[in-house]
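User: I'll paste a sequence; please echo it back and then give the predicted structure.

Assistant: Echoing your sequence first, then the prediction.
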Amino acid sequence: MRDQDAKVRLDLNNPVFQDGVFGLEKPERQAALETLKKLRRLTWQQVYRDAGLKWEKIVSVKPPPGTDALYSLRITRSRRATAYRDGAFLRLLSIATDHDSTYGQK
């Protein structure tokens, strides 16, 4: 099986990401969980093409050492998450409080 055909595996262990999820109001938290469920069903190729997720490379923020690039994706209608790909894993880092902070602009 090619790498792009592999199912996405989620890493939700980052404390900053967890604080972001747990800090959401109930309807938004439910929407975030639905997005996470959706991600688990997708292959990487599907993630890259999914118009609803709006997977985008963040060029305004330097990625941490050992990471090729940081990405943002829509986690709810009004919030974006930052993450990076590590093999089959999508390692989620944070949920932005507003759109601009995802890209390091606030």
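The chain has four helices and five strands. The chain has one domain: 3-94.
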